[in-house]
Amino acid sequence: MKKIFNIVLTILILIGIVIFFDYKGALDKPNSDSPEKVSFQIKEGEAVNNILKNLVDEGVLGKRLVNYAKIYLKTTKTEAKIQAGSYSIPKNLNIKELIKTLQDGKDQDIWVTIPEGLRKDEIANIIAKELEKTDKATFSVEDFLKATTDPEVIVKLNLHSEVKDLEGFLYPDKYAFSPNSTTMSVLEVLVGNFKAKVGVEYTYEDIIMASIVEREGYNAQDRPVIAGILLKRLREGWLLQADATLLYPAKDWKHVITVQDKANDNPYNSYKKAGLPPTPICNPGIQAINATRNPEESLYYFYIHDNDGNPHYARTLEEHNVNVNKYLR
Q1: Beta-strand (E) ranges in the chain?
Q2: Are strands 311-314 and 37-42 parallel, antiparallel or unpaired?
């Protein structure tokens, strides 16, 4: 009986450990990948159980996460802090963010999701679209873009001295902006998050290269290989010939590259200009930054992606041309 008791006890302990780590992981895992926002109403005096059920019905909270949400509310003693009111809730919040939002009431934060690989003008427009929903914010796209090249602003944000443009340092992430946000406070949040997530062990060249890797790569598997290829090209004096650099001046990621684009004489044309562009071409995520920090060495000098996004690498121009004819024509 003692042996059976010990076995059962061990099993229960193991189950408890699994549940504990599942709970801890669930707290920080977004409910969805979708930044779509849902209008949600909490009535005065409404029971927490009913609120959680309605959140599930609206697709803001996964059904399996309801008990974890209850545990979190109990352990953080935040049940009583949930406020009645109307909310605009993104589907991609995790449990912690969701509970925090439900405590904001009338002055709820404004959630904005900034994807990886966008230019500063794209980011400014996304933020403006959300902040214009409150009459308290004083955010200006024009002022935002001017500030990104203002030396005094860059010094104030305490970035490395060689940084001349905030392109590349507006960290892509999910943000809860105050309804009283200003242009400068938004910049401080974005750049502050960059410094928190990336740290200080970077060079301006690292971020420029990471921005190219962000746009040229598709995922965590191909980006380190592409970073290795581009860094090797740079090191050996080759032209980078990265298509994404041609798209930056055009301000259109879907632009079909032409022979004329490759012939244009501008500092972002890596088909004509040796070395790196003068600034990042987008704002890279941590995956691209880490790929640049830890590139995968290979024998390759060339790469393409087929129409399904699969990478094809080549050691020589002849092999590269075979891949182009095989997968892109």
Answers
A1: 37-42, 85-90, 110-113, 174-177, 302-305, 311-314
A2: unpaired
CA 261 to chain centre: 29
Per-residue pLDDT reduced to its tens digit, 186-206 = 999 999 999 999 998 899 999
Cross-strand pairs, 329:
none
CA–CA dist 306, 115 (Å, integer): 23
Count of CB atoms situated within 10 Å of the CB of 130? 19
pTM greater than 0.85 (yes/no): no
Summarize pLDDT for 79-132 with one digit per residue, the tens.
888 888 778 888 899 988 888 888 876 667 889 999 999 999 999 999 999 999
263 half-sphere exposure, CB direction, 13 A CA radius: 3
Q: What is the Cα 86 distance to its own chain's centre?
A: 28
Residues in Cβ contact with 311 at an 8 Å cutoff, skipping those fewer than 6 apart:
218, 221, 222, 225, 226, 303, 304, 305
Instruction: Kindly write down the DSSP assignment for every residue of 143-206, as one continuous string.
Output: HHHHHTT-HHHHHHTT--TT----TT-S--SEEEE-TT-BHHHHHHHHHHHHHHHH-S---HHH
Q: What tokens does 23 get?
A: 């709970």
Helix (H, G, I), strand (E, B) or coil at 247: helix
Q: Count of CB atoms within 10 A of residue 206's CB?
A: 17
**Whole-angstrom distance, CA of residue 109 vs CA of residue 8:** 47
Query: Distance from CA of residue 234 to its chain's centroid?
Result: 26
Cβ atoms of 229 and 303 closer than 8 Å: yes
Distance CA 26, CA 24 (A): 6
> Would you mind telling me the total number of residues written for the chain in this entry?
329
pLDDT of residue 22: 65
CATH numbers and ranges of domains, the chain: 27-107 (3.30.1490.480), 110-198 (no CATH), 204-298 (no CATH)
The two structure tokens encoding residue 111: 């959630």
